[in-house]
Every structure is written in C-alpha cells, then in structure tokens.
Amino acid sequence: MEKVLVAMSGGVDSSVAAALLKSQGYDVIGVHMQLWDHGEANFERIGSRCCSVIDSNDARRVCDQIDVPYYVINAQDIFKEKVVDYFVHEYLQSRTPNPCAECNNQIKFNYLFQKADELGCKWVATGHYAQVVQDEAEGVARLHKGKDEHKDQTYFLAGLTQDALKRTLMPLGGLSKKMVRKLAVEFELSVSEKPDSQEICFIGKPGYQEFIEKQTSPDLRPGGNITTTLGEIVGEHRGLYRYTIGQRKGLQLKVKDPDQYYVVGFDTRRNVLIVGPEKYLMNQRLVASQTNWVRPVSGLKGIECYAKIRYQHEPAQCSVTIYENNTIHVDFEKAQRAITPGQLIVFYQGNEVIGGARIDEIASTEAIQ
Length: 369
Description:
Layout: E1 3-7, H1 12-23, E2 27-34, H2 53-65, E3 70-74, H3 76-92, H4 99-118, E4 123-125, E5 130-135, E6 140-145, H5 162-165, E7 168-169, H6 177-186, H7 208-215, E8 224-228, E9 233-237, E10 262-267, E11 272-276, E12 282-293, E13 303-308, E14 316-322, E15 328-337, E16 344-349, E17 352-362
Parallel strand pairs: 1-2, 1-4, 2-3, 4-7, 8-11
Antiparallel strand pairs: 5-6, 6-17, 8-9, 10-11, 12-15, 12-17, 13-14, 13-16, 14-15, 16-17
C-alpha cells in the first residue's frame, strides 16, 4: 500500500480523487490548504468560490466518510505574499495576472510535497483534469491533456517540474466531469451535488477592481487620458488597472463609433490608455520569460509546437526560439488576437504540455493589415 497525500479542496473533484485512490488500495491521507480568510463569510457558502471554513469542513467530512486521516495546512501568510500581492502588483503595472497558475507554482505543490515528505508519502495527488504519464523508457514524466477537453486544466500546470511530476497522481485525467459526478454519487460522498468553484478564491462579488482599491492607496492608481493609436485624446480613464487588452465595454469614449474601439495598449510612463480598431489587437510575435520546460527540450534550434495564450484560447501553431535567462521569442504562423502581457503562454506538442512562460510584451506593435 503506497502512501499518497491527496490535496482536498472540499469540492467534488478532489473528493472523488481521494475515494478512487482509496478504492485502488492506496494508503490515502487528505490535506486541505487554508489560503484565505473570508472574514464573516468564512462560515457561509460563498457562491462559486473556495477556501472558506465550509470547504475545509466538507473536506474533513469526506475524509471521515472514506476513513482516511485529515490535516489542514495554514498557508495564508505566504499565499498573501506570493499570490495576492503579486496579483495586485501586476494590475498596477498594467499587466493581467493569472493567480491560479501562480498559486500552483508558488504555493500548492511546494507545500504539498513538503507535507508529503513529513508524512512519509511517496505520491501527491490532486483532482485536476490532466494526465501524468510516467515514461520509463526515457526516464521522464509527461503531462498530457485531460480526456475531457472542456475541463482540461493543463494550462494551469505548466509550471510543474520533472521532480514534481514524477511523484504526482491525477486520477481524474481519464474521466469526464459527468463520470466524476456519477462516481461521487456511487461513493455516497456528501459533496456529490456541490457546485464547482469558478471564481478567484480571494475575490468577492464586487470584482477585482474593488479588491485592488481596498488593498492600495489612491496615489498608486491615478486616472489619466485615453488616446487613440494616433495620439488623439478621446476620453479619461480611472486608473490603468481597471482595463485589459481587448476590452471594449466601459470605456466611455468621445468618438463617433465607440463600439469600434478596443484597449490595445498602455503607456505607463505617461499614464495613458491607448485604444484603437480591432486590427491593432492582432499580432504574430511576443516575448516571454520565466520559462519552465515541463519536459526537457533542446534550445539549439526553434521548437515547433502549438501554444495557448490564455486558458480558453484555441492552441495556435508557432515556433519558439530560446535565449539566455529563460527568455523566449514566439512567432505564430497566424496573427493572434489580444496577446496580453502578464498572462501565461503554454506550449503543446499533440496532447502533451512541453512548457510554459509568462508573456512580457508584444514583439511588434505594427497592426496586421
């Protein structure tokens, strides 16, 4: 009986993962990570968010049902430092962050493997819809898309290292969401009807803009002018953090056809929001850094692959050139819409994730004609 630590969020996916592994003969230990204090709302079911005391209690109840030990890790301080502060800082720098991927990279797996070592666990398991394939012939672990493409979560896991993947189990990777719900009923789990979490765990109903305003002083988020790509002033903004590349709604522009204008860039030096026609959102090249190659690759020549520039993006064919300091240049075969600094770019060859990086800038601001 190999010992496995299962990350328990209190939701149906991680609960079914734990129950499946227990039924397969693993020695399961459930661990819940307390990442955020929701204040009074800790004791309420907060819509589709996670990380409340209610979720912790749900995870504990499932562990009691399947008769496995249960532990809670308090990681609120480091979560605030590494994820929440990063989230706020990125928006104040006119970049669009991805806190869920950052949490996986900086917090969850690091803490989980530390705890697994303390408890003598060989494996760490999660309820992600992704597949880990142990390639014994080449001595590498491969990260593949989940069978249910609508639920595939490999985009958020591109920061995983070989060391982590070689000790990771993702038992839901070959299942559909419908089947997971069915299994939850068959295992008689108390969370079988619990809705999926969909919101960022630390953001409330008002939204990220109001959250940032509560976390920062007004002098860090001044208003300024909105100009066209030609430099014509067409409005005023209420702080660059309130906007993202490709945004069209809520701009309140003083132009003839406001619906034809999108956010296409930021001039942070002059605190100016730049808008223009949709063609200015189309670009074929970008620069990215903080690159992690999930599977070892050769940097001696361009890497031909497909890439997603956001979670819901359709993978697009591209060529990747590797430079020093984990910096890469990506050239797409066809122009991509709304490449956004701060977001992740994740690389695929077939169903396999080979790596990921954080987008720094668009390599050319020329509009694609």
